[in-house]
Amino acid sequence: MNDTVDRFGYESLAFFGRVNASISHELKNVMAIISETAGLLGDLSDMASSGAPVAPDMLKDCTASIVEEIQRGFSVIRQMNRFSHSIDHPVESVDILEVLDLSVNLSSYLSFAGKVDVLPYDGPAPMVATCPFLLQAVVYQTLANAFRKISAGSELTISVVGSTDEKGWKILFSGFGPGGFEGFPDALLKTMAASIGVAIDWDSKADRLEIFVPMTIGNGSLSES
Questions:
Q1: Looking at 27, 50, 85, which one is the last position of a domain?
Q2: Which of 50, 86, 168, 209 would bridge with 133, disulfide CB 3.0–4.6 Å?
Q3: DSSP code of 86?
Q4: What does the pLDDT look like over 39-93, one tens digit per residue?
Q5: Under a CB-based contact definition with an 8 Å cutoff, are residues 211 and 170 in contact?
Q6: Is the preceding peptide bond at 185 cis, omega within 30 degrees of 0?
Q7: What distance in Å separates the CA atoms of residue 69 and residue 32, rounded to the nearest whole number?
Q8: Rounded distance, CA 15 to CA 175, Å?
Q9: How far is residue 28's CA from residue 73's CA, in Å, rounded to a whole number?
Q10: Of 85, 109, 141, which residue is a domain's last?
Q11: Is-contact 83 105, C-beta < 8 A?
């Protein structure tokens, strides 16, 4: 098999592994907090059994903390399931806003994740026929790189607009300084994006990154390979 194809296939698998590693780390944090709080509840129970006074508010706080972490865990698992199902079909109709929502949620588990503001889109859902998994990979890796580019305390702003030729949509990332994304993406990510007709460009005049997503996968791309 061609070396480029081998690398492309490996990178897709590696991306899936990296995302699941960050998810499992987040779930580990959830379980650690629940375990610590359960231990505190056990100590309070022992105190009460020995006749020592135990403030009811402490019990309520522990219970509330456990409930909060359980809900957080359920939320993480929901994102994991959404991500896992992105490989169900090679090509299908997807809402770009849903891809963005999942990408933002998944990238929030990264240790270096920053603040993100996805601007509301006013209009019909921006639908495209594409490979959900590969589009997810492109958007997620763009977010991960963006977090490394923005300064501490800054907020990354994301918006979706229709392209002027009406042949697709643009996902706009802003909040960077001059030259923030020059040299991005690397050749492998560019190849992955191109396989579904997606183009990633840095607009130096506006200091923003643009991801063009076509309405449908074009000639010579994944759908016809």
A1: 85
A2: 86
A3: G
A4: 999 999 999 899 888 888 999 999 999 999 999 999 999 999 999 999 888 899 9
A5: yes
A6: yes
A7: 10
A8: 25
A9: 9
A10: 85
A11: no
pTM confidence score:
0.85
Sheet holding 115-118, edge to edge: 115-118, 155-162, 168-174, 208-214, 199-203
Residue 128's domain comprises: 90-224
Say if residues 124 and 84 touch (Cβ distance below 8 Å): no
Amino acid (one-letter) located at 106: L
Compute how many other C-beta atoms are within 10 angstroms of the C-beta atom of residue 192: 25
For residues 160 and 197, membership in a common domain is answered with yes
Q: Strand locations in the chain, DSSP E?
A: 92-95, 115-118, 127-130, 155-162, 168-174, 199-203, 208-214
Q: Are residues 135 and 120 in the same domain?
A: yes
Kindly state whether residues 25 and 41 are assigned to the same domain: yes
Q: Angle 96-107/3-49 helices, nearest 10 degrees? A: 60
Say if residue 142 is exposed, middle or buried (CB neighbours under 10 Å; 0-12, 13-18, 19+): buried
Nearest to 112 by CA among 183, 25, 192: 25
The partner residues of 161 in beta bridges, in order of sequence, read 170
Tokens representing residue 36 in the block: 């610590």
Q: How far apart are CA 224 and CA 146, in angstroms?
A: 32
